[in-house]
Amino acid sequence: MTKRCMVALITPFHADGSIDYMSMARLIRRLLKEGCDGFIVCGTTAETPTLRKEERRQILRFVISQVKGKAAIYYGCGSNDTLATIAACKEVEKEAIDGVLLVTPYYNKPSQEGLYRHFSAIAQATTLPIMLYQVPARCGVAMEAETIIRLAHDHETIKALKFASSDFALIRKVKENCDLTIYSGEDEMLLEGLEEGMQGIISVSAHLILPQIKKLMEQYEQS
């Protein structure tokens, strides 16, 4: 099977708000056994707005120690502050990760040129592979196809796109004009995403039903 199912990893907590690393280890072991192809670590699914900087780094290193190279690891570094995002990327350049996930700047609602300059500045500042993250319902802004294509053409380190939207016309245009790996960011739109040629999904429900999602993708490829 060539389609991949990655998991946007949650952060288990104890009742007092501290991180439950034992539960996280059990979860990672089970997901690996079920065939997880990769983990998004410290995305917003992991409650990162409520995690301290030191906690996020500790979680990343813990996940690396548990995965042991058996699956891809992408670390969430995106924010609406360009310099802070650059600093977050540079801090993890020596970690054993496959890349960073960078969300479109939320709240600020930059123009298309502003979005281009934000991601360009980060791509120029770090050597890490970059996965862009388009989720307009949460960020209030979306990159147009031309902006994504321009970024992909201008920066070799921009390798992938996590796409959480129903604008499949944009996906078709991007795929026609550049070679980004594209993942669905919406569980309920998995089949539609596969129909449009997406290479897989970054899933939340896979915490509970990863084998079923993998089977669904396998059946789709065989159909």
Spell out the key features of this protein.
9 helices, alpha/beta, 8 strands, 223 residues
Distance between the termini: 12 Å
Low-confidence stretches: none
The dominant shape is globular
What structural class do helix, strand and pairing data support?
A: alpha/beta
Averaging pLDDT over every residue, what do you get? 96
Largest sheet: 8 strands, parallel, barrel
SSE string, helices as H and strands as E: EHEHEHEHEHHEHEHEH
Work out the helix count. 9
User: What Rg do the Cα atoms give?
Assistant: 17 Å
User: Percent of residues in beta strands?
Assistant: 15-25%
How many beta-strand segments? Answer: 8
- Helical amount: 40-55%
Strand order of the largest sheet: 1-2-3-4-5-6-7-8
Structure at a glance:
The chain is α/β, with parallel strands linked by helices and 223 residues long. Helix content is 44%, strand content 17%. Strands 1-2-3-4-5-6-7-8 form an eight-stranded parallel β-barrel.
Overview of this structure, please?
This protein is α/β, with parallel strands linked by helices. It is built from 9 helices and 8 strands. α3 packs parallel to α4 and α6 (145-154) runs parallel beside α7. The two termini are 12 Å apart.
